[in-house]
Amino acid sequence: MDCIDGSIQQSRNFKKDDFEADWIKVAECRFGQVYQVKLKVWRVKCALKSFETSLCATNFYRRIIDEASDIAKVKFKYIVSIYGLCSEATAVVMEYMSNGSLNNLLASHTLMWPKKFQMIHEASMGMNFLHSMKPPLLHLNLKTSNILLDDNLHVKISDFGLIRWEEGMSKKSFMENLTARGNISYIPPETFTQCSDPPGTTFDVYSFGIVIWEILTQQKAYAGCSVTTVLLQVSHGKRPCVEMIPEQKPHECDQMISIMRQCWDQDHRKRPQFSDTVRRTEALSEVLKIPGPIQCHNNGDEGQKSNYPWLVSPVHKIALPEMPDLPSDDQHGKDNILSLLSKKDFGSFRQSVRREHVSALFSDKKSLLHYTVASRDAESVEHVLSLGADVNCMTAKGYTPLIIAVLHRLHDIISLLLEHGADATQGDEDQWTALHFAAQNGDDRAVRLLLDKGAVADAREKAGWMPLHLACQNGHETVVRLLLSRLSEEAVGEREAQGRTPLHLASAYGHVNIAKLLLSQGADPNAIDCSLSTPLHLSAEEGHNRVVRQLLKNGVNTDSADRRGYTPLHLAALRGHTGICRQLLSNKSSHDSKTLQGWTPMHLAALRGHETTVLQLESQGGCVNARGENGWTPLHLACHQSEPEVVATLLTAKADPNVAEDSEGWTPLHLACTSVSFPSVLHLISHHADVNAVNSGKATPLHLAAQHGCIPIVKALLLNGADRTLLDSSGSTALNVAQRREKWEIVQLLEK
């Protein structure tokens, strides 16, 4: 069998017939395509990355074949697993990552700061693992499109080992190999200087610095710049603009920026090793309290992951007009006009511009008016308009000059365009109007100008978001008040495509004043979205105490269950928000309500190791012996997860140490031995756990301790009466198990 515990033991060559017929193309890259496929035998989804041999170097795929077995051995939590090859399709078969690339996520969603920090840390973990191999496995292709995301938006590094520095390779051919993949922004300066050294670990460290910037800003480095411009800037020590990192950031961000600057240092000798970066990013992530995924015995994550994994809204970004670097022969006149704007020589621009320039179209259907607005000079904008420019002209993606002006917060130009007949209701290709952008940015002055000139306050973009949704999500209270003054009473409860109301969004992000305002305007505190979550679910999960208090004052139903059967108390317990648990229980929330999987809040708090939350739940009536799926109690979960403090707390609260779960008859002591948690074993023994309890396979705790080779646990069990003569269902004693597993120190102990 090729598969054990969900991981592949060795690479193999798959046939096309090994996969079901429906191949779904999920991505297209420069050298081929990526398909979602399903293996018939394993019944699991995989990604099949095919290489277009006519576009790749002739020996490229051959080298992948030669190295696939080595790369397939690389197994780590933050590295995408390679399962093997499919030579018939000239493809690599790999782990399927359901949420695609980080590059796409950064462009389509707003990430909260804890998630950004978590992703940076997880990427550093993956890279540290590659570099800790002997010899270090260099990536040389690290970029946001090669960082992939799993079901729970955790990061895994992909496409490592595909680019190699070959002995005798010239710098020129190496650079051509890199730039062909669109990697120009991630290449360190020493690669294209006279330095003859082959690339080392510091190459990847530099790339990681650019990745950090792109995560923090959610922008692309050097967007719109030509390859020549990037090479010149980087070789002269210039880097992406740190000022583009949003101003409203946690103070920990300054330390992350410091790490970023060190990573992209001009002198490669001053760049830190990933072993150091991992520790520093871990500390920053810990400060922002990022939770890990839930993992539970025979249970998986399905049905337990959050519906709101740190991101809620579609953030909408547009490519602002960039001045071209070099004029082409056929556009020399037009581009000279643009170069005057670029140099901010507005006097010469106004003297030189002609009607034929005004009517001309540049790349992506941008007009001269778009570029002039982006230059920020109101007088030049007025001049171009006077020459007959179409005030409502649109780029290929539907952006009007008014939208450009709103994005730049150019209020004088906004007024000017509106006076010249700019349509305040015009949307782009995604139906985002200028008012949507102004609301997202919290620009109340622009909102006022637009509303006074006919902007539709309840306009919806393609996912159903109104400007009010965006203002509530981003915490722009003044804009919310402005919009509410122009909207009907019903609008306060309007839902976007996922069923979320403005109150859901304000609650999810902890904007208590906006939540209070919406409630005073008649917002329904019990409104449910498509997953049956109420605003209370979201605020309880994210730990927003003040919002929870406000919702409770407004008569919210504390026991409303979402599609997974989770109440707000379940979510608060899962995340260890003890104060919110106290509030909810004081407001008659049911402490023993069960999810669809049978978990109580006590189970979830124990699962995650939240000792104070367990204490709080128990003190307010929570049952420490409640039985969930397969008869598991909170004590089973705490032992399985190696949470000795929670084990001690539950036992002190009279949890039964000898209760056996339903499916295989495991007691908490069996699980503590299997998870090799010596402190948990001691707590259980001191509370009279049966050291000779047998499960359905007749295995005792001693059998399991011998199997896992933990000497202190074996000693503790023997000192407390463990019977070494008992046989499991295969007729083996604990000694036989230790001998089979070659645990020789355990064998010596048991032979005494």
Characterization of this structure:
- This protein is mainly alpha-helical and 752 residues long.
- Among the domains are: 3-95, Phosphorylase Kinase, domain 1 (2-Layer Sandwich); 102-287, Transferase(Phosphotransferase) domain 1 (Transferase(Phosphotransferase), domain 1), CATH 1.10.510.10; 329-482, Ankyrin repeat-containing domain (Serine Threonine Protein Phosphatase 5, Tetratricopeptide repeat, Alpha Horseshoe).
- 42% of the residues lie in helices and 6% in strands.
- It is built from 35 helices and 10 strands.
- Strand 1 and strand 2 (7-8) form a beta hairpin.
- Helix 28 (634-640) packs antiparallel against helix 29.
- The radius of gyration is 30 Å and the shape is globular.
Number of strands: 10
Mean pLDDT score: 85
What is the CA-CA span between the terminal residues?
39 Å
Low-pLDDT runs of 5+ residues are: 1-10, 289-313, 324-332
What are the key terms here?
two-stranded antiparallel sheet; Serine Threonine Protein Phosphatase 5, Tetratricopeptide repeat; single chain; Transferase(Phosphotransferase), domain 1; 752 residues; globular; mainly alpha; disordered N terminus
Architecture blueprint of SSEs:
Elements: E1 3-4, E2 7-8, E3 12-13, E4 24-29, E5 32-38, E6 45-51, H1 60-72, E7 82-86, E8 91-95, H2 102-108, H3 113-131, E9 147-149, E10 155-157, H4 171-179, H5 201-217, H6 227-235, H7 253-263, H8 274-287, H9 332-342, H10 346-352, H11 355-359, H12 368-374, H13 378-386, H14 401-407, H15 411-419, H16 434-441, H17 444-452, H18 467-474, H19 477-486, H20 502-508, H21 512-520, H22 535-542, H23 545-553, H24 568-574, H25 578-586, H26 601-607, H27 611-619, H28 634-640, H29 644-652, H30 668-674, H31 678-686, H32 701-708, H33 711-719, H34 734-740, H35 744-751
Parallel strand pairs: 3-7
Antiparallel strand pairs: 1-2, 4-5, 5-6, 6-8, 7-8, 9-10
